[in-house]
Amino acid sequence: MADNASAAEPSKSAIKKAEKQARVAAEKAGKVAKAAKQAALPVVGGKKADDIMGMTVKKTENFSAWYQEVVLKSELINYYEEISGFFILRPTSMYIWNTIRKWFQEGIEEMGVEEASFPMFLSSKSLEKEKDHVEGFAPELAWVTKAGDKDLEVPVAVRPTSEAVMYPYYSKWIRSHRDLPLRLNQWNSVVRWEAKQTTPFLRAREFLWQEGHTAHLTEELAGEEVLQILELYAGVYEQLLAVPVVRGRKTEKEKFAGGYYTTTVEGYIPSNGRGIQGATSHCLGQNFSKMFDITVEDPTQKEGEGAKHIHVWQNSWGLSTRVIGVMIMIHGDDKGLVLPPRISKIQVIIIPVGVTKNTTPEDKTKMYDQLQDFKDTLKKVKVRSDYDVRDGYTPAWKFNDWELKGVPLRLEYGPKDAAKSVVSFARRDTGEKGTIAISDMAAEIPKLLETIQSDMYAKAEASFRSHRVVINKWEEVVPTLDSKNVVLIPHCLAEKCEDQIKDSTKGAPDESDGPQDQKAPSMGMKSLCIPFEQPEGIVKGETKCLNPECGALAEKYCMFGRSY
Amino acid sequence: MADNASAAEPSKSAIKKAEKQARVAAEKAGKVAKAAKQAALPVVGGKKADDIMGMTVKKTENFSAWYQEVVLKSELINYYEEISGFFILRPTSMYIWNTIRKWFQEGIEEMGVEEASFPMFLSSKSLEKEKDHVEGFAPELAWVTKAGDKDLEVPVAVRPTSEAVMYPYYSKWIRSHRDLPLRLNQWNSVVRWEAKQTTPFLRAREFLWQEGHTAHLTEELAGEEVLQILELYAGVYEQLLAVPVVRGRKTEKEKFAGGYYTTTVEGYIPSNGRGIQGATSHCLGQNFSKMFDITVEDPTQKEGEGAKHIHVWQNSWGLSTRVIGVMIMIHGDDKGLVLPPRISKIQVIIIPVGVTKNTTPEDKTKMYDQLQDFKDTLKKVKVRSDYDVRDGYTPAWKFNDWELKGVPLRLEYGPKDAAKSVVSFARRDTGEKGTIAISDMAAEIPKLLETIQSDMYAKAEASFRSHRVVINKWEEVVPTLDSKNVVLIPHCLAEKCEDQIKDSTKGAPDESDGPQDQKAPSMGMKSLCIPFEQPEGIVKGETKCLNPECGALAEKYCMFGRSY
User: Which ranges carry the Aminoacyl-transfer RNA synthetases class-II family profile domain (chains A, B) (predicted)?
Assistant: First the structure.
């Protein structure tokens, strides 16, 4: 199993401090609300309450604390206080996840993947069949040892992934090459009882994902599917979340435990210059089919030759709610969350302005009716909108509240707009303001939302492109990392060399996380992937691995970085 | 928690024997296939293989064994052999469940219910807040006590339902009456480590469901929602699964542990005359909001009166994969599964006939192209079809195979049909045969599928109606039950009286399950629900409870029956 965790350790104390800061702020906000509740008063938009209800940490100043605060205050997440390392996904998160689910599900249905549901528990017997696999997961297994007040005869573990749950049945169900390909996917949650620091979406002890498990007759057929799935994963990031990714293959060191090879989409977090694994599509080769005895007769054998059996070629691939965390880190800003329109539950929030004490009830009703008309108009062109007519809150307070929640487009409507038959708008991503004629809303707003979507992608893509630096001199590696880049270096792809590199790039102060007084030594870099799209420059048999302690020949440019 | 289980106990040995019978048959089938596999031969449609691959138990002769066999052989289910009481849902099952999910999800979205995802574990601390609730679930809780090789400081239980997981957060999130209603639903699986005999779909240690948890300002608002949801549950049965249900309220004895009242849809299994709980929608009243401190200020209080707090009114409601089991038991027959068209993954199976050794390759290609045309034509009118061109199997073998799998409509196409420009059809539900002009397929087949759907419902509805017998004489109760009916009797609705009735209706030999030599004493009857639609005949203050040992006045007609 690829270890993406060690990255978090050096700055643990920094994270803890930042977390505390965020929680104190959240508590303060809670107290204000509670006080208001006790006084039977709404939390009105006075200057002080605004500040406390909104973001208190800047993204550039303390990225970890900012992240913790934004996921809480935008109501994506609640910490599960009863058991540490678990999180509650609130409706805004689930809307995003369900949008991804629908999109990906359509893609795999078209490929002929079917859905199944296997039990959440596995016996130690099945687990132990694949040794590398069990070693990877054993330290994180949650064991059920009791039912009611009785001890179980044989304890069972909650699945950390389902290879060992499913493959005994693949062995039963696959009886002939005509049963191939067998392609099953399930949407569920898995449990990995991490000892390391957990972070909402990025590292949780339970997380939602899909896991696809397929069996094929040949390596080629399996390999084709691995890439088709990887392309769907890239699509989730690029088309839905407006997040650019690099497609590539994991090194031997970082591949899936017990697998043959792992392909991956890798993201990049500009705020701290770290790489982050996006999603992985594995070819398991025949390792598992040999352990679980999944064979078919060779369809190419001639009559009279006797039965010759082939072990099937297997893949497994998974995409988790981690994608949401990557999206938040890339697009969010000091005001809070910034959601790409395609995955935002509310795409347009409409806020009445210019309602004063002098507004007559009739004028107010007329105006609110108009807001409903806007909503209806937008619904017809499949734009998800809502209006905010909460009493007791100023427009400014509402602006902040919806900015915090990341809604892509704000419309304002008041007497001045009405006089000109327009609505005013403000983009969440750029802050750009303007007006749209009411008669043009149905045509212009869907276009504007798509512009926001593509602008968000373009901005993130430009940032990743400019921070992916090809390096051919070892001395430049650490300074380049320190300037928040990931690097592409000629590499031998050997595991031992990777270990050395991780070690020899450690230690410079890490300015990416936390304020000055919380500086911790920065982590070493690790390999993110061997990008499919290779820079030119490696001369076979000549170019050496960039690691000065290595001396071997370079095989490929490999992308390295500090990483989640 | 309502106990639907005790019903199964008296005939445990019968079930075990039947199960074994089904398994032996399945094993035999497996051996034949395995032998064929080893010989590198397809399992060809010889007479003997046909018999073993198809159903071996008749629905009328041994209902339990028939059920076990049909869920296995139609490939809905696989037993999870590693851990008893768990089942694997295969693609046909998941298709049904996902169809239900989509339909229900649309219904609740329209009502404003949002989706969330809470952790699967709960701490004993939260669990213990509601005493009746914890007592109901404690014996079935699966406890995680270890992570990796370390003991957890505090063990955690896998959720059996999520009241205790969710409500601490309702207390946090609900700060004002403007936060009401709060309506969250989640689709997940829950674990109840049943000590009793498990049965695929009906009683499993882990099952898929949705659980909705909502909070309202008043009893009236909560009550309205309880019934809206119940109507959606009835719709799942009646509109999708072609299964009739009776809507009603549970008695105090059978209501949800810790709740205020429970509404239910109840089904009926003609083969053994048993009632079966379909799905329940509970009003929890203020019991949980008091325990979890979920309050809002009273919006009706006047200024200067001081803060007055109201505990919110809560509901919870759940629908599980049990629905699939009920559908199978009602519609299936001696040939296997019979699926209503609306929930069948494949609605129409097209089988080529009349292909012989003398058929030229050109004619065969032409014919198979025609099958693809049929499929395309049907796809355009949203009919899900496939064709079966597996070599080495006779049409008769294929007919049996698809009948076993329950596909609602079979089309046959051969040279004779081609000559007349028709396709032949056979309905799965009635066996009715006929022909349809190829030019009429796009218009006629969707209609025919809807006819099958409504005929299946009408047949099941007539059966349930005629076996719901109003009884006003105690002596008639047991004979009526013995004739595979459920009964409606005037009842006092008291818990103690129900216990007596269960006891005094026990003991006659149960002919519904198992062959003669496996007869077990039949179970006593229990209350299924107090139907909303009441027969006439109770005179308030006059009519007595039918239980001769009771003597109290009757409150309502209550539906009783032997039950799952």
Answer: 96-340
